[in-house]
What does this fold into?
Amino acid sequence: MKKFELLAASAIALLYATPALAQSTPAPAAQDGALNDSDDIIVTATKREQTLQDVPISVSVTSSATIEKAQIRDLIDLQSVVPSLKVAQFNAAGQTNFIIRGFGNGNGNDGIESSVGVFVDGVYRSRSASALDDLPEIERVEVLRGPQSTLFGKNVSAGAISIVTKRPSFEWGGKAEISVGNYSQMQTRATITGPLTDSLAFRVSGSLNERDGYFKNLTTGSDVNNRHRWSVRGDILFEPSSDFSVRIIGDYNLIKEVCCGVTSIYNGPATQAIKALGFAVSDTTKIFDRNVIFNTDPYNRIVGKGVSGQVDWNIGFAKLTSITAYRNQINQSNQDIDFTAADIANNITANNAKTFTQEFRLASNGDGRLSWLVGGFYQDERLTTGRDIRFGKDARAFVNALSGGLITGLEALQNATNPSIIPGGTYFTPGQGIADNYKMKQRSYSLFGQADFKVTDRLTLTGGIAYMNDRKAVVSNVVMNDKFSALNLENVPGLGFLPFAALPASLSGCLLQKGFNPASTGGRVPVNLFGASLGASLPGPGSAPCPGSLGGTNPFALNALQFFYANTTNHGPVNYPNANESGIFKGDKVTYAARAAYDLDFVNVYVSYSTGWKASAVNLSSDSRPPLNGVGRSAAPEEVTVYEAGAKAKFRGGYFNLAVFKQSIKGFQSNAFTGLGYSLVNAGKESVRGFEVDAAYSPVSALALTGSVTYLDPKYDSFTGAPCVNYDTTRCPINPATGLRPSFRDLSGQKPAGIPTWSFSTSATLSHNLTNDVSAYLRGEYNYASKFQLTETTPPDLSTYGQNTINASLGFQSKANKLELMFWVRNLTQDNYLISTFPTVAQDGSYSGYPNQPRTFGGTLRKSF
It folds into this structure.
């Protein structure tokens, strides 16, 4: 609270600071997307400064003016102005996924890097959570669509997000703002910049973001999905001459929140059993009431800190750039993962990533026909990650309810020959579960080059090539103390010594009624009494007094209650390195890019062919298996190919950009959450055809219009290893001999989930001078996504949603005082939709989802000087 008061007081003080420090008046911010004849949007998408119209790739640029007027506070908000970008936050603050053109992964499984790389001032952020700190004082955000491996490395197979912050200035200036809103929001931000000497300048920025949660935990009474974030950032620029500069940036940010809200969208038999025990469960008829049922509140803590240094040196024929960075990120969370008021299972996760990166590049100077760029990139990362799932005090009652008390019956039978098995005290006791612990050392490097040759004043040919090399060394230490999952139900020790007559009548009578012959086991209890394989000895259908069951099935099979490693022969993890597995995953690749651009004066047209690569992914979850045994240890690299043609037109008052593309990924790394872990497999091939349009037009000086449209037609060309799901009984039938579903199903030829066919964003900003000093603007924004299935692991009728969101802002600006007062609202019409869905943990046949953020509104007072 002290930090909050201090930063709030500082921001308020700066709001009313005298402008005497100002040496000059900064140019007024441009309207959203509007251009004058002399305006050019500068981007660094090719790692050298070019205008947006000249760069021959599909890229969207969001200016600082748009970010302020649209109340964009982090990368999750950014998707509202870039329709080809999708950003989703799931069950923890650090579990965030970035998707471009329908491609993206890396959420939840620390062994999988994102397909969309995030760069802040040229520094690669390898973990998605490290990109979530509230946006600092920025110059622009560039979203590069399609593979960018030739210049940006191995983990930009779907695209890249490049955040460019404002450099320190040699003229005094600054900005401070305070925002208040519903849900008790209070956000303060401040930055100050100026000279220390003639060659040394600084910028210091800070932010604090506080807000109550918009979910209510009906069990504890606490808010969920709150905001508690703060960050500080220091930036030093040493520029002794126009040919040499050094920029050093240090930052620290903390996220400490109760996150995230999850609600049931379908309560299957397992969830209904919890309700029958007297525990509250979510009301699936009130999904968007934003009430949750957790027996404990979730907890998240993310600490990100780092330092980077950039050196730029003009050595005459070329400019040499070096970017060195070190980052350390800690991510911790504690969650009730059964999402009910019962204490069934809890999950504690933590990871620590220490990342060093170094980039060198040399870019030619001059305006000759040939321009070129060469460089190299190196990354060294040390990751420690762990997950601990433990049964709670109500787990035993839950599984007994599902089994009709058979868990206790099994213990009683085992106790007859093994006194250490205690009825009521051996299986599913509090504290049992599984602990996944992994360490991964990753080393990667790339060498790249690109050249532009002006064949004529109008025709430019571009060629690029990169070599990438990646090596991961992983050590696993998975410890399972779930005694029931470790039990081989097809051969339970001790049962074969008991006489069949010793069985309770409820068991023996039912088996006899279904046609079991005790003589087949020598008059003794079958060792697979509680295993699915006994079904082969039970030809008759179930009827009273038996539980209803088909012929050939065992009504007493308990295989479905083995939540971990049920389908492995050893019923437990196999840690590595071991005699058969080195734990080392290596790969390398050469990627290419070729483009031709032609200048027609009013429009630039281009065609391009490029390839991308994403390194191997490692399954660091409880679903990790030895190779060729169910879900594998790792997924092979992704290989991306894209054909693209585009046109970029600039005209008086606006621009129009069009890109048409066909993009495919061989070996797409599918990372589906299946209930307790992740199914990491490669799809044979996934492709998407589509087009993107970005446009802006200002018909008169008072009106600025923008529009962006994305059309996507995706398909699984080949995907025979998609994880099996409960609702697909045709391709995933339960095997009577094992009681388990197949591991995989074939989705070849189907449309991938998570990709809307149409999405677009449009805005209109109307400006008017109220007096010679005071101006006003009104901005409206509409975002649309057509209906689409969110995930393939959830039935389409439960997980198909679209989006229709309206945001708006009204602002007043004083030129003389450099003050701005803005009122804003996001999700004005309270559009309700689910961000994502998934199978509910340990409740087969139930499904849960993440409701979107409701309407938020407030006001912002901003002072520049």
Observations:
- DSSP finds nine helices and 44 strands in the chain.
- The two ends are 28 Å apart (CA to CA).
